[in-house]
Specification:
InterPro entries: DHBP_synth_RibB-like_a/b_dom (IPR017945), Sua5-like_dom (IPR006070), SUA5_domain (IPR052532)
Strand content: 15-25%
Protein name: Threonylcarbamoyl-AMP synthase
Helix content: 25-40%
Pfam families: Sua5_yciO_yrdC
GO molecular function, one term: double-stranded RNA binding
Shape: globular
Strand order of the largest sheet: 1-8-2-3-7-4-6-5-9-10
Distance between the termini: 45 Å
Oligomer: single chain
Number of helices: 6
Length: 206
């Protein structure tokens, strides 16, 4: 049964956030809010967490997972990014964008696209997400909480708890965070290709 954890949306309680981060270190799979919608999160090296995310969302091995980063220092360790792309990404974050880029050796092979060797990365503009990343001290493997056959992600903490009670270990609820996922921009070939129009304004990459 999942723990239901209520956290303040503007001033998240450090004790609560530290507790969730500690659970993640111990292998937990957590549903948590972001600046676009709720997501599923686990530690990058948590193989069981990855398997559970795949099962909940029924994902194949071509799905681009997202590595949620606190800042560019973390992002730069996970993907190869040249100066021109760096400037374009830097101008758009933090925000509701996911960028597809070639992964570095720091990224486990299971998280990379099998052919392209790419992965999604993003820096969120959400107080609770940033507090969790700061407490964890490392990027978070993440996937939008969009269930199979549904058009919109789950956005209410109580509903997530109700529907995924035996599939996740905790639900971190800081209130409604919307149903629109991130805008996804593929920079793996150098030029921006918009793969999905979402919460982030795509105009800067068109």
């Amino acid at each position: 049964m999942a723990k239901y954890i209520d956290v303040h949306p503007e001033n998240p309680q450090p004790r609560i956030i530290d507790g969730v981060a500690d659970s993640l270190r111990k292998g937990a799979l957590v549903a948590y809010p972001t600046d676009s919608c709720y997501a599923l999160g686990s530690r990058i090296g948590n193989h069981e967490g990855l398997t559970r995310i795949r099962e909940i969302r029924r994902l194949d091995d071509r799905h681009h997972f997202t590595l949620m980063c606190a800042d560019f220092a973390q992002l730069g360790q996970l993907v190869h990014i040249d100066n021109r792309v760096f400037r374009a990404v830097k101008a758009a974050v933090p925000g509701a964008y996911t960028f597809i880029l070639p992964g570095t050796k720091e990224v486990p092979r299971q998280l990379l696209h099998p052919k392209k060797k790419t992965v999604g990365v993003r820096i969120p503009d959400h107080v609770v997400t940033q507090a969790l990343l700061a407490s964890l001290g490392e990027p978070l493997l993440s996937s939008t909480l969009l269930l199979p056959g549904e058009e919109e992600p789950l956005t209410q903490g109580w509903e997530i708890k109700e529907r995924l009670d035996h599939q996740v270990d905790a639900v971190l609820d800081s209130g409604d965070c919307g149903t629109v996922p991130t805008t996804v921009v593929d920079f793996s070939e150098g030029e921006p290709e918009i793969l999905r129009v979402g919460a982030g304004d795509p105009a800067r990459f068109e």
